[in-house]
User: Which sequence fits this backbone?
């Protein structure tokens, strides 16, 4: 589904990603771990198409399409989703209008008519239940006045609404208490299907108790220094990163 | 409800029809400064001033539920520079809601200089929305002098959509204890349009409240000037006075000039002022685009969000929704389709 080959990216001339190779297949969950400043969030941003980063080398294929040629909205319409580490507040745009706009823009791309009001409401209700979100959230401004946990739940809710093929979750667990973490993880597990895939970027093993990864990658200084099965996360939790960095 | 109104203004092009009169709206037309027909009932009197301008009085104690819409327009029947004065009195303990729309119907170069004197008597509660939608050759100056008596409340929301040079000069005298005045404005300027807002808020007695919130979106080489002065007299203890001016600059050549000024002679007051100018938020745009929303739509949503809190100050929900739609179509560039009219708001 996703093939990252020799990806290099920089910001203001400073190289952050120094040659990344990752291959994600449908039905898989990949975890990317690594110390602060190793390039995890940069990788997520580059994949989603944030143009403050410059890709200097390498290629990314998403279901055979060259992802790097596409704008962020085109990538989303192809079925890519980024769950933000710091979801943005948009006062004046209600959650419901935001989602309706997003869904209809994506439907337009697929030559589908705009979603009907009844269909949309049904969808909202179902997907809000996935993350145990109160219906009062739908009329509120996107993320405005939401707590850290509510913002992250809103990310998972949006993912549920948009039904992406590949979701990249950038530190969705940061700032969550244990209950919120469980809800977020349960949301991801409910949305997991044989034809979609997840890349979960995280600092801690904690989240991986709930979302079981097929592959764990350790990113350090812009490179993947180790890729293994789920037991790698446990080892990192026990021993830290130093043994990998100094290996 | 307005069908009959057109019969005595046959020269007004059909495009002028306000096809969406809001529920519970009474309309009066002012053509080149001259009121077409008086609008009067037991609750209020809206009459011609001295030839030009209007005299508008809301009777004491009356609660006027309808919105009184005054549609003031310039057209080719008089293209000279005009100036006129209007007088408004909101009677004791009255409440009312007024909508003033200004338009230009022909492509002539118009210059309009108008003075509005407003007296808000004790205990009155008055809401005014001034919607300015004029063409690229219109130079319109408002000089609004406001006097508020004890416990009077007056709110003016300026929604400025279009015009070559629009000047809104407001002098407020808070003369009675416990009076409140709110001035809000949203202006959307592009091309070489200029908006000047000049506010003098005089707190003369104790326990008055004032707030100013002006936000603008400036594109191309549009310019916005904001000058706001709050003066708190020595006696005016327990004053609360706030002022904010924020501008969103869409293009590199758009300019915003802000001059906030505070002059405080009392010692027990709460006052603040703030002025910012900024650009579209790259992170916010990326967030929306990452959900599949196009770059253009994301920019639009962000601009709408920017002026949202000013629009929220409009109390009447129908009017608020209507103006929200107008602001959206203005930002989408859907204005100015008609050769004779820059309004498209009807």
Assistant:
């Amino acid at each position: 589904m996703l093939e990252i080959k020799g990806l290099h990216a920089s910001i203001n001339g400073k190289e952050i990603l120094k040659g990344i190779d990752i291959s994600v297949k449908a039905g898989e969950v990949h975890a990317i771990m690594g110390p602060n400043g190793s390039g995890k969030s940069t990788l997520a941003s580059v994949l989603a198409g944030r143009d403050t980063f410059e890709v200097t080398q390498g290629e990314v294929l998403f279901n055979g399409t060259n992802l790097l040629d596409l704008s962020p909205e085109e990538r989303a319409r192809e079925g890519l989703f980024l769950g933000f580490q710091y979801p943005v507040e948009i006062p004046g745009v209600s959650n419901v209008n935001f989602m309706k706009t997003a869904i209809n823009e994506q439907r337009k791309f697929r030559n589908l008519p705009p979603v009907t009001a009844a269909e949309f409401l049904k969808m909202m209700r179902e997907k809000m239940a996935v993350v145990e979100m109160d219906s009062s959230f739908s009329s509120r401004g996107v993320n405005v006045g939401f707590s850290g946990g509510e913002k992250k739940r809103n990310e998972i809710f949006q993912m549920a609404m948009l039904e992406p093929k590949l979701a990249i979750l950038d530190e969705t667990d940061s700032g969550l208490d244990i209950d919120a973490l469980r809800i977020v993880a349960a949301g991801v597990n409910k949305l997991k299907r044989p034809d979609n895939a997840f890349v979960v970027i995280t600092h801690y093993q904690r989240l991986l108790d709930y979302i079981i990864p097929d592959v764990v990658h350790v990113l350090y200084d812009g490179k993947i220094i180790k890729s293994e099965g789920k037991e790698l996360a446990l080892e990192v939790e026990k021993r830290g990163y130093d043994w990998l960095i100094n290996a | 409800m307005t069908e009959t109104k057109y019969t005595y203004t046959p020269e007004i092009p059909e495009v002028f029809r306000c096809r969406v009169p809001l529920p519970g709206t009474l309309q009066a037309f002012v053509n080149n400064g001259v009121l077409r027909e008086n609008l009067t009932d037991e609750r209020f009197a809206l009459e011609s001033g001295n030839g030009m301008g209007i005299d508008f009085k809301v009777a004491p104690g009356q609660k006027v539920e309808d919105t009184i819409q005054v549609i003031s327009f310039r057209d080719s029947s008089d293209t000279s520079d005009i100036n006129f004065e209007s007088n408004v009195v909101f009677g004791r303990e009255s409440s009312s809601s007024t909508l003033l729309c200004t338009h230009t119907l022909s492509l002539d170069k118009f210059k309009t200089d108008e003075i509005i004197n407003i007296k808000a008597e004790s205990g009155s509660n008055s809401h005014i929305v001034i919607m300015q939608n004029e063409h690229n050759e219109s130079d319109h100056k408002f000089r609004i002098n406001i006097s508020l008596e004890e416990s009077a409340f007056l709110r003016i929301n300026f929604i400025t959509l279009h015009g070559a040079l629009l000047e809104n000069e407001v002098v407020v005298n808070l003369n009675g204890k416990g009076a409140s005045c709110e001035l809000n404005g949203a202006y959307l300027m592009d091309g070489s349009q200029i908006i000047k807002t000049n506010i003098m808020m005089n707190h003369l007695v104790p326990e008055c409240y004032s707030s100013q919130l002006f936000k603008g979106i400036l594109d191309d080489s549009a310019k916005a000037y904001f000058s706001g002065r709050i003066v708190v007299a020595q006696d005016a203890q327990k004053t609360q006075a706030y002022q904010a001016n924020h501008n969103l600059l869409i293009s590199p050549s758009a300019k915003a000039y802000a001059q906030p000024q505070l002059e405080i002679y009392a010692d027990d007051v709460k006052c603040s002022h703030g002025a910012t100018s900024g650009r579209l938020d790259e992170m916010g745009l990326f967030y929306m685009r990452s959900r599949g929303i196009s770059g253009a739509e994301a920019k639009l949503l962000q601009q709408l969000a920017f002026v949202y809190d000013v629009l929220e100050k409009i109390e009447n929900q129908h009017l608020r929704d209507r103006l929200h739609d107008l602001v959206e179509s203005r930002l989408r560039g859907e204005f100015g389709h008609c050769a004779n009219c820059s309004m498209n708001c009807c």
Remarks:
- The longest strand of chain A covers residues 14-24.
- The mean pLDDT of chain A is 91.
